[in-house]
Design a protein that fits this description.
alpha-mannosidase activity; Glyco_hydro_38_N_sf; Glyco_hydro_38_N
Length: about 180
């Protein structure tokens, strides 16, 4: 939220109104909503709560209750803890997705098809601390043939059917295949 806040402060009233409309219509959603992405392995729970409270307060003040994040996002913390899963569940999140995991855990989860799970965040809180959790299968990488970065050579989606390089059906099928693989 710290980066969004900086961007938000530079926008005109017209742009802000457009963003508010997108949020109210459910076409733009905020993920996690914390002021930053906290580390999990060594961060005290007070710090996690405080930085999420700061982000949540900003979202509520600018957009109302419709902007409340429902999904936790931890793409690059060094380590994970049950406490974070428990806190996110108690914050009302429906799920948590993270990227970085130990390579042995990643290999095991890939082989056993357990990249998604219900994380039981606390032995004492029962279901109120349970959180649907998924490991991002490629961390930072897009699915094969969907890298549109300047350093990639993947074919773009060409959607003008009057041109010779129209490829929407093939690209849609490739995306469906990538989703099935994940």
């Amino acid at each position: 939220m710290a980066f969004f806040w900086r961007w938000w402060n530079e926008q005109s009233d017209d742009v802000r109104e457009t963003v508010k409309e997108l949020v109210n219509d459910g076409r733009l959603e905020f993920i996690s909503g914390g002021w930053c992405m906290n580390d999990e392995g060594i961060t005290h729970y007070n710090s996690i709560i405080d930085q999420h409270s700061l982000g949540a307060e900003f979202l509520r003040d600018q957009f109302g209750e419709c902007a409340r994040p429902k999904i936790g996002w931890q793409i690059d913390p060094f380590g994970h803890s049950r406490e974070v899963a428990s806190l996110f569940a108690q914050m009302g999140f429906d799920g948590l997705f993270f990227g970085r995991v130990d390579y042995q855990d990643y290999q095991h989860r890939t082989m056993t098809k357990t990249m998604e799970m219900v994380w039981k965040g606390s032995a004492n809180l029962n279901r109120e601390s349970w959180l649907f959790t998924g490991v991002l299968p490629r961390v930072y990488e897009p699915p094969d043939s969907f890298c549109f970065d300047q350093f990639c050579n993947d074919q773009p989606v060409m959607d003008d059917s009057s041109l010779h390089d129209y490829n929407v059906p093939e690209r849609v099928q490739a995306f469906i295949n990538a989703a099935h693989d994940q």
